[in-house]
User: Which sequence fits this backbone?
């Protein structure tokens, strides 16, 4: 609640004011030149940094235990900036296969156009598969703490050991778990990203994304080349790594990707983000307790084929959920109802309290049919391999009264 705050000396406002400005005045000719050469922390333009964004950045860096954070316009922008800072045309990234559908679309469409290839590992517990996919051109590993929608949680420490063995950084999307449940940097990750639209904000009112630098990866000793970090910025000047040390990756990403491409977060959305973060722990407790209650109720329902929630004893990820999350593996999971796509249609159309919509991590509960929405562009073979069955529904459980949610689910299931 307090990280990132600065005292308002003008009026004594307790809430951080919104800095609605595009640019900033320079004190002098030399001050302008110094800011552009990277001396000090003076502001240049809100495409790079804005005081409202800085509050959110410091707050999230504190939550994740990172050295510096960058806020951008969406979670997709955060993933894009974080990875394009590491890989360029002709280079590769390796990712676990079960990740958010929008990220797979990003990798298969825009990254492909940029010349960056993405290879997938289907069994992250298989070292041989990792070794086959990682090549001399691989510049990063990408994964998620709790994948969406299957709740097939990842052992981050295990993937981190693979990354260390190959001398490449591990980038982890921690959107669904949030730092309330896990801090990936403490499990060996090097960079963390969030769609902070989701649980960090919680209100569903504004898009935002975040990149957090762990500050511990040894860029200079890596067998891979990271020229944006290690090459001099301009003749006669030190490299970003020499200049900034543990915040070098964040500084480089802000300057060489976010500033160049321009996915700046508006001051107003920054304000909404850091306001939302203040209630993260309170909201997460309710999200998690509701989700476990509802997953257990659905698991025993006669019109339900299966529930993909790692906190249930029958899940193949239950041991990992117990070890990493105390058995509460987030509040985004899937339920497969009887009757295939026809059953899914009847179920969704029967909901009254739970909203039919995309997005997750809102205080309001939501439901979606992935096969005809988020995963509709995937081939049937890929959908089958990802476990996206015709009757599968993704649920994002909010903070409403659990009895109301169960009543709504029961009424919808009765239509099957």
Assistant:
């Amino acid at each position: 609640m307090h990280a990132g705050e600065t005292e308002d000396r003008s009026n004594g406002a307790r809430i951080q004011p919104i800095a609605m400005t595009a640019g900033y005045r320079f004190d002098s000719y030399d001050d302008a030149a110094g800011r552009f050469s990277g001396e000090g922390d003076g502001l240049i333009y809100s495409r790079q940094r804005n005081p409202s964004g800085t509050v959110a950045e410091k707050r999230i860096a504190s939550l994740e235990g990172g050295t510096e954070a960058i806020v951008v316009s969406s979670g997709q922008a955060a993933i894009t900036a974080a990875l394009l800072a590491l890989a360029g045309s002709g280079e590769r990234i390796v990712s676990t296969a079960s990740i958010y559908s929008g990220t797979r679309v990003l990798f298969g469409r825009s990254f492909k156009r940029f010349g960056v290839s993405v290879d997938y590992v289907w069994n992250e517990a298989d070292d041989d598969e990792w070794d086959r996919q990682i090549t001399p051109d691989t510049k990063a590993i990408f994964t998620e703490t709790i994948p969406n929608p299957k709740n097939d949680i990842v052992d981050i420490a295990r993937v981190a050991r693979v990354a260390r063995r190959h001398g490449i950084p591990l980038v982890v999307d921690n959107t669904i778990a949030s730092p309330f449940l896990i801090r990936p940097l403490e499990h060996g990750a090097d960079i963390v990203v969030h769609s902070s639209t989701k649980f960090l904000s919680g209100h569903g009112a504004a898009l935002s994304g975040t990149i957090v630098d762990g500050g511990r990866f040894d860029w200079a000793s890596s067998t891979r080349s990271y020229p944006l970090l290690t090459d001099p910025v301009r003749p006669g000047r030190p490299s970003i790594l020499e200049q900034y040390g543990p915040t070098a990756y964040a500084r480089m990403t802000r300057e060489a990707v976010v500033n160049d491409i321009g996915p700046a977060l508006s001051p107003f959305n920054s304000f909404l983000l850091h306001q939302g973060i203040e209630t993260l722990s309170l909201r997460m407790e309710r999200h998690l307790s509701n989700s476990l209650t509802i997953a257990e109720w659905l698991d025993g329902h006669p019109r339900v084929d299966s529930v993909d929630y790692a906190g249930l004893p029958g899940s193949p990820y239950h041991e990992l959920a117990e070890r990493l999350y105390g058995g509460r593996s987030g509040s985004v999971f899937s339920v497969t109802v009887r009757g295939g796509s026809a059953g899914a249609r009847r179920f969704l159309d029967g909901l009254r309290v739970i909203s039919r919509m995309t997005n997750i991590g809102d205080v309001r509960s939501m439901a979606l049919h992935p096969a005809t929405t988020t995963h509709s562009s995937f081939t049937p073979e890929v959908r089958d391999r990802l476990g996206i069955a015709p009757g599968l529904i993704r649920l994002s459980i909010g903070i409403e009264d659990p009895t109301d949610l169960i009543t709504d689910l029961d009424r919808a299931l009765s239509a099957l």
About this structure: The chain is about 40% helix and 15% strand. The chain has a mean pLDDT of 95. The longest helix spans residues 280-299.
